[in-house]
């Protein structure tokens, strides 16, 4: 039976910062309770605790957020030189910061026997003492032990979050596949019908090519949605076919379509299927109208070994005269709907499949919409 419920949104930056501050304060109180030998009482606001334990907390926080992540990063990348350099920096900073209270307290409270004995046994008297056994033992008990504890807690939490995200993604994927199966028509019938149409329009080369592209689009939509990853080459081919079909629908003098794909399409580069087409589809759906002035759509995709950068910009439908005012109002409403529900679905998918590995920027001006997406490998 639960008497209260704690509901913390860990995707909210303020919530995360608040929880971290609370945990560090709890650690400070624990250290104060362990430091009762210096005061013969537990007093978290006593100068001895404020100076001594806060100094240790600073060292632990510095290591936890700055030095330890760098050490892990360099060793994962097998950059041994920088990794060893940061290990030495980690030890030197921890030792100097941990020994500062001993020196400071001995001079500030000369009558305190506890710190005087600690300083005589563990304190750094000369620079050579930094790597001696006594300061190392003091640093381990005052800083390293707590750093190991916080790292273990962080690792356990990350593993828990990773498993939770995997279960969420699996559940979402199952729900999406179920909804997709409910909405789709018989694919074999659709492909057979397209083949029949293709045979009837062979005399019209442009129409035949269009049917071929449409067939490839549908085939990738049906097969790709069942795969966890597809190659970037396949995704670009899918986007190219989609854009080519849009070119057929719109007259060049009314709609300007600029498309650039400059990516090293290696089979090793993978991407979640049907992720980018949503932005292109909405750019044409909500930013192109041959009845209202001249429209345009710019699409650009670049990729390297570390990331994929995707850019889509489209014109906003501006009123040319009073005759089109009602049309403009209707299209503006469609755009607002797109910016609400449509983008929220894309954001949700990015959060599930590219958690902390994507940067999405959406900008709106009086003239255009701009979407910039970066996916990290």
Automatic annotation (TrEMBL):
<dbReference type="InterPro" id="IPR010559">
    <property type="entry name" value="Sig_transdc_His_kin_internal"/>
</dbReference>
<dbReference type="GO" id="GO:0000155">
    <property type="term" value="F:phosphorelay sensor kinase activity"/>
</dbReference>
<keyword id="KW-0812">Transmembrane</keyword>
<dbReference type="GO" id="GO:0016020">
    <property type="term" value="C:membrane"/>
</dbReference>
<protein>
    <recommendedName>
        <fullName>Signal transduction histidine kinase internal region domain-containing protein</fullName>
    </recommendedName>
</protein>
<feature type="transmembrane region" description="Helical">
    <location>
        <begin position="21"/>
        <end position="38"/>
    </location>
</feature>
<feature type="transmembrane region" description="Helical">
    <location>
        <begin position="80"/>
        <end position="104"/>
    </location>
</feature>
<feature type="transmembrane region" description="Helical">
    <location>
        <begin position="50"/>
        <end position="68"/>
    </location>
</feature>
<dbReference type="Pfam" id="PF06580">
    <property type="entry name" value="His_kinase"/>
</dbReference>
<keyword id="KW-0472">Membrane</keyword>
<keyword id="KW-1133">Transmembrane helix</keyword>
<feature type="transmembrane region" description="Helical">
    <location>
        <begin position="136"/>
        <end position="160"/>
    </location>
</feature>
<feature type="domain" description="Signal transduction histidine kinase internal region">
    <location>
        <begin position="176"/>
        <end position="251"/>
    </location>
</feature>
<dbReference type="InterPro" id="IPR050640">
    <property type="entry name" value="Bact_2-comp_sensor_kinase"/>
</dbReference>
<dbReference type="InterPro" id="IPR036890">
    <property type="entry name" value="HATPase_C_sf"/>
</dbReference>
